[in-house]
Design a protein that fits this description.
By secondary structure, the protein is an alpha/beta fold. Helix content is 40%, strand content 24%. It is built from eight helices and nine strands. Strands 1, 2, 3, 4, 5, 6, 7, 8 and 9 form a nine-stranded mixed beta sheet that branches. Strand 1 and strand 2 (27-37) form a beta hairpin. The chain is globular. The two termini are 24 Å apart.
Length: 220
């Protein structure tokens, strides 16, 4: 049964602990939703995932003997590249079974978040968008600026390729594809397409994700 602390985490951070199942597994559920907030606070009523909340939670899960595995529920439009990659690296380094479930969107920096888990699912209507790096604010039209853009893209592409069944060349091609995004470059993958491209392991929903995670916990 959920205690008061679990209810507090659910209301504040969208997190809950599943510990009343017949398999006897203690599963931490963490949601990555809205916009991934970085060093600057997002203003207004925009839903966001704050990395200063998620990082300590990941450390706690990794070190907690009572946590057997982690289920990540993902529905994000992307956001801060630095914060997103930091969260993805943390997820990938956890020495416990992890499963990601894309239930709506996993756009932009949300792609590394989805592939960082040990195993990933996407629902049939879920979407993933891969596009070149975009930076807001003043952009200096100098070679160094474009070199910096390329460095960021290489970090993202390398991480995705390392943690999925696709290649850096394939990802780079999807980034610069024309025609799929109005007045922009990039590729939209819907449900099964994300599986076929090797980004996501399997098409499925919540029951599939929980079953897989419990199976992985049992093997470990």
């Amino acid at each position: 049964m959920a205690n008061n602390n679990s209810n507090d985490n659910l209301s504040k951070y969208g997190q809950v602990i599943l510990d009343d199942n017949r398999e006897g597994c203690n599963i931490q559920v963490i949601s990555l939703i809205g916009e991934i907030e970085g060093h600057d606070c997002i203003q207004g009523s925009t839903k966001s995932t704050k990395y200063e909340h998620i990082l300590p939670q990941l450390v706690s899960c990794a070190d907690d003997n009572k946590t057997d595995g982690i289920l990540f529920i993902i529905n994000t439009v992307g956001g801060d590249v630095s914060a997103g990659l930091a969260i993805a690296e943390m997820i990938a380094s956890i020495n416990k079974p992890t499963v990601a479930l894309v239930i709506g969107d996993s756009h932009s920096i949300g792609v590394p978040l989805a592939v960082a888990a040990d195993y990933s699912f996407i629902v049939a209507t879920g979407t993933m968008i891969i596009h070149p790096v975009r930076l807001s604010g003043t952009v200096i039209g100098a070679p160094q600026t474009y070199d910096y853009f390329k460095l960021i893209e290489d970090r993202i592409v390398s991480f995705i390729a390392e943690h999925s069944n696709t290649t850096k060349d394939a990802l780079s091609s999807m980034m610069i594809a024309k025609g799929l995004l109005t007045k922009d470059l990039g590729t939209i993958l819907v449900g099964r397409e994300a599986v076929e491209k090797g980004l996501i392991n399997e098409l499925g929903g919540l029951s599939d994700a929980l079953t897989k995670l419990k199976e992985m916990i049992g093997k470990k």
